[in-house]
Amino acid sequence: MDDEHRRPAFTDLAELSGSQLGRLGRGFGRVVEGFRRAAGSQVAAVATPVALRGTTLVVRTTSSMWAQQLGFLERELIERLREELPDVEVERIHARAGLPASAPPPAPTQPIDALDPARSAALERLVQRIADPVLRSRVLRAAQASEARRLNRPDSAS
């Protein structure tokens, strides 16, 4: 078989839809579904099993904070997994931060209509007490966008 017709050896299971996972039948799809039930809806919304390597379940999370939280919950999750899937041996959960490759890229930011200098200065004064520069710039951008939308409404009076 030549290279262009060769099937990939591995599939990132985080990229599969629920129906595709169901087709895996008695395989890893059962582990993914068992994890979702064992973890509960809040954790399952931010964490997806992507591999079972020996007795280690590898889980991808949406943030490093959630990866750390899964570390704290590891013993409890393993016990629940044993209840859900008694025939699957999981002794460890290794959580890694990072979105699945199929996650949509962040939406491009829309340009904000220019505000007059007095309004811009007033908004900048409002956010200057925020110590974190990244948070300050994001709050400022959100405030500017909100103000621009408010000013561009047909019923707004300036």
Descriptive notes:
By secondary structure, this protein is α+β, with helices and mostly antiparallel strands. The chain folds into two domains: 9-97, 2-Layer Sandwich (GMP Synthetase, Chain A, domain 3); 117-152, no CATH class. Helix content is 47%, strand content 12%. It has six helices and three strands; from the N terminus they run αααββαβαα. Strands 1-2-3 form a three-stranded mixed beta sheet, covered by helices on one side. A hairpin with a 2-residue loop joins strand 1 and strand 2 (56-61). The protein is elongated and about 65 Å long. The protein starts with 17 loop residues before the first helix and ends in a 6-residue tail after the last helix. Mean pLDDT is 77; it is low at 7-11 and 19-26.
Features:
12% strand; 6 helices; alpha+beta; 47% helix; 158 residues; 3-stranded mixed sheet; 2 domains; GMP Synthetase, Chain A, domain 3; single chain
Give a concise summary.
This protein has 6 helices and 3 strands.
Domain unit count: 2
Determine the CATH topology of the largest domain: GMP Synthetase, Chain A, domain 3
| Portion in strands | 5-15%
Strand order of the largest sheet: 1-2-3
Give the topology.
Layout: H1 18-23, H2 28-39, H3 41-44, E1 47-53, E2 56-61, H4 64-84, E3 92-97, H5 117-127, H6 133-152
Parallel strand pairs: 2-3
Antiparallel strand pairs: 1-2
Helix pairs in contact: 2-4, 5-6
